[in-house]
Specification:
CATH superfamily of the domain at 4-184 and 214-243: NAD(P)-binding Rossmann-like Domain
Strand content: 15-25%
Family: Belongs to the NAD(P)-dependent epimerase/dehydratase family. Dihydroflavonol-4-reductase subfamily.
Strand order of the largest sheet: 3-2-1-4-5-7-11
Number of helices: 12
Radius of gyration: 19 Å
Order of helices and strands: EHEHEHEHEEHEEHEEHEEHEHHEHH
Organism: Paractinoplanes lichenicola
Keywords: Oxidoreductase
CATH class of the domain at 4-184 and 214-243: Alpha Beta
CATH topology of the domain at 4-184 and 214-243: Rossmann fold
Structural class: alpha/beta
Protein name: NAD-dependent epimerase/dehydratase family protein
InterPro entries: Epimerase_deHydtase, NAD(P)-bd_dom_sf, NAD(P)_dehydrat-like
Distance between the termini: 41 Å
Number of strands: 14
């Protein structure tokens, strides 16, 4: 296959699986990294043969993006900061929005055919918590600390669609909106969603807030990105990627049931909602949890299922495979 794909944020959890999926399909893949010193580590964790190269580019700088997109047929833009780790307490909206614009503008200059942007179901939250939501739903939230992530993802995706409408000569745009992403970890650089399972297994969640998420498996999410990239009918579409909903306590019960002694530290104790709400004004983590307490998300992936024939595997399987990978990597 002569077609080439640029994958941004090449060291990330989703990007690793997207790169693996694309290489398996015979594409030439170029991945962006903020530092090329990580190239060998990323190549190792992808773990499949194929034409894989790397280029340095940062969401907060114009440098490198024209070189990154040169000669590319497609771009899959997975890179976006989350309010954890090095970005905890920092502005994540600016790099999310500016980075998306840089990628799209460079893609246009390079004559890229289609860009797939990894958004989030955080950008498709209904006004009434728990109400049915699909691709027609857009998040509308106040500018408050607790809503930093959903605002960043929503504004970045809206920017992408606005730019594409201004460019009738292309590129095409498709967005993928994953829910809580689970699946086998590839290395110690964990996503926050996989980090939840690690906290449970290590006994660092002695009580569980009454929260939950729809689950999507990262392996199936990579397949959806690949299909969204090439399917003619996918151009100009949003696709929610969300499977079964699980409460934190249900996730913990799955771990206890399927891992036996390895899950001995997993707690099933429920944290009362009032405790979270009382602590929210004084604790950033509790403040971010508060709006989701007791909310059962009602997201539909029917659009992806009907248009692309896509489905994700059972949530219990994803959770179990995530846990096994953490144990095998010695991360618990």
């Amino acid at each position: 296959m002569s077609e080439s794909v640029l994958v941004t944020g090449g060291s990330g959890f989703v990007a690793g699986y997207v790169v693996r999926e694309l290489l398996g399909r015979g594409y030439r893949v170029r991945a962006t990294l903020r530092s090329l010193r990580r190239a060998d580590a990323v190549r190792g964790k992808v773990g499949v043969d194929g034409d894989l190269s790397f280029v340095a580019a940062d969401l907060l700088s114009d440098d490198g993006w024209d070189a990154a997109t040169e000669g590319m047929t497609y771009v899959v833009h997975t890179a976006s900061p989350m309010p954890v780790g090095e970005h905890r307490g920092q502005d994540i909206t600016t790099p999310a929005r500016h980075g998306t614009r840089r990628v799209l503008q460079a893609a246009r200059r390079a004559g890229v055919r289609r860009v797939v942007v990894t958004s989030s179901t955080a950008a498709a939250m209904p006004a009434v918590p728990g109400a049915p939501a699909d691709e027609r739903t857009w998040t509308d939230l106040p500018d408050q600390r607790r809503y930093a992530y959903p605002r960043a993802k929503t504004l970045a995706e809206r920017d992408a669609w606005r730019l594409i409408r201004e460019w009738p000569d292309g590129p095409e745009l498709t967005t993928v909106l994953p829910a809580n992403i689970q699946g086998p970890a590839l290395d110690e650089d964990l996503s926050p969603s996989v980090g939840l399972i690690r906290l449970m297994l290590s006994g660092k969640m002695p009580v569980l807030p009454r929260m939950g998420y729809p689950i999507v498996d990262v392996r199936d999410l990579a397949v959806l990105h690949a299909e969204a990239m090439t399917a003619p009918a996918a151009a100009g579409q949003r696709f929610i990627a969300a499977g079964e909903f699980l409460w934190f306590r249900e996730i913990a019960a799955i771990l206890r049931d399927r891992l036996g002694p390895a899950a001995a530290k997993v707690s099933l104790r429920q944290l009362p909602n009032w405790v979270v709400r009382a602590a929210a004004p004084f604790n950033a983590e509790m403040d971010q949890l508060a709006p989701s307490l007791g909310v059962r998300s009602n997201l539909s992936s029917a659009h992806a299922e009907k248009l692309l024939g896509w489905r994700t595997r059972p949530a219990a399987e994803s959770v179990t495979d995530t846990a096994h990978s953490l144990l095998e990597l010695g991360l618990v």
